[in-house]
Amino acid sequence: MPRPLINLQVEGAYFRWRLSQRGYVWYADGRTNSPPAGRHSLMSTNLEEAKATLRKLEQDLAQQLGLIKLAAEIDAPTPLGLQVGWELYRTHASRARTAGGVKTKTVNRYRRSSISSFHSRPKRMYSLGIV
């Protein structure tokens, strides 16, 4: 009968990890990677929590080691104007119901409410206490 595995092998997006348990705490060993990712405590006694922590750790290490771009370096999309957002929503909602659209009554309700800025909300919103 083969000897049971001491370490779990986990294949991540950027590194291969060996998970081991010391006492009750899980540790991730990535020293065999190129570039080496080191050995880190996952500060968890639960295996599923340790794997979730490992995913976050792997993302951070990949950024530090230059395998992926930093989040600040990635161009963020420019925010949409309110009117453009409404038009996109109306186009999306007016699809057929079988394609994920909404009822025609809902489309008509939002077509009637023409919100052009944040401060020009329908009076009905004030009376309902939404605003």
Task: Give an overview of the whole structure.
By secondary structure, the chain is an alpha+beta fold. The protein folds into 2 domains: 8-64, no CATH class; 82-128, no CATH class. The protein contains 4 helices and 4 strands, in the order ββββαααα. It has helices spanning 47-64, 82-93, 104-112, 123-128, and strands spanning 8-11, 16-22, 25-29, 39-41. A 4-stranded antiparallel sheet has the order 1-2-3-4, with helices on one face. A hairpin with a 4-residue loop joins strand 1 and strand 2.
Structural class by sheet pairing and helices: alpha+beta
Q: Would you tell me the overall average pLDDT?
A: 81
Taken as a percent bin, the fraction of beta residues is 5-15%
Span between N and C termini? Answer: 69 Å
Helix fraction? 25-40%
Number of separate helices: 4
Major sheet size, sense and barrel closure:
4 strands, antiparallel
Strand order of the largest sheet: 1-2-3-4
User: Which spans have pLDDT < 50 for at least 5 consecutive residues?
Assistant: none
Shape: elongated
What's the Cα radius of gyration? 26 Å
Count structural domains: 2
Give structural attributes.
single chain, 131 residues, alpha+beta, 15% strand
In short:
This protein has 131 residues and is an alpha+beta fold.
Give the helix/strand layout.
Blueprint: E1 8-11, E2 16-22, E3 25-29, E4 39-41, H1 47-64, H2 82-93, H3 104-112, H4 123-128
Antiparallel strand pairs: 1-2, 2-3, 3-4
